[in-house]
Specification:
This protein has about 130 residues and is mainly α. It has eight helices and no strands. The protein folds into two domains: about 1-50, no CATH class; about 55-129, AhpD-like (Up-down Bundle).
Length: about 130
C-alpha cells in the first residue's frame, strides 16, 4: 500500500474512533510536530488499525487495557470514548478495566474506573449534541 493511501485510511480510521471533533486535535498537534501526526495516521491508524482479522471494537478494548496498565490516563479517557463509539458497551469497558487489577493492581484498576466514569460522562454529553 502506498504512503498516501495509508495516510488517508489512517485519517478515516482515526476519525471513526475519535469522532469528527478530532480534526481540531490533529490541527493543534500538527503545529507542534506535523511529522508526528503524519506517522500516527500512516503507521498506527493506517497500517495497524486497518488490518483485517480483529474487529475495531476488540482493538480498542485491547488499547484500553494497555493504556490502563501503563497509567496513560488522558489517552485512556480518549480511547474509552473511542471504544464506545465503535460499539463497545460501558459494561465491557468496566469489566476489562477490572480485569487489569489482576495484572497491574488495585490502584490502576480504581484510577482506570474513575477515568472511565469521566469518559462515560463525556461520551453521553457528546451523544446528546
Amino acid at each position: 500500500m502506498e504512503e498516501t493511501e495509508l495516510y488517508e485510511k489512517g485519517l478515516a480510521k482515526h476519525t471513526e474512533i475519535f469522532g469528527a471533533g478530532v480534526e481540531e486535535w490533529r490541527k493543534q498537534f500538527r503545529e507542534i510536530n506535523p511529522d508526528a501526526v503524519e506517522y500516527l495516521m500512516k503507521y498506527c491508524f493506517g497500517a495497524y488499525y486497518c488490518r483485517p482479522g480483529v474487529e475495531l471494537k476488540i482493538r480498542e478494548l485491547c488499547t484500553v487495557s494497555a493504556l490502563a496498565v501503563l497509567g496513560r490516563w488522558p489517552q485512556l479517557k480518549s480511547h474509552i470514548c473511542g471504544a464506545l463509539r465503535v460499539g463497545a458497551t460501558k459494561t465491557e469497558v468496566t469489566e476489562i478495566l477490572l480485569q487489569m487489577q489482576n495484572y497491574a493492581g488495585w490502584p490502576v484498576a480504581l484510577t482506570s474506573l474513575e477515568v472511565a466514569n469521566e469518559a462515560f460522562l463525556n461520551f453521553d454529553e457528546e451523544q446528546k449534541s
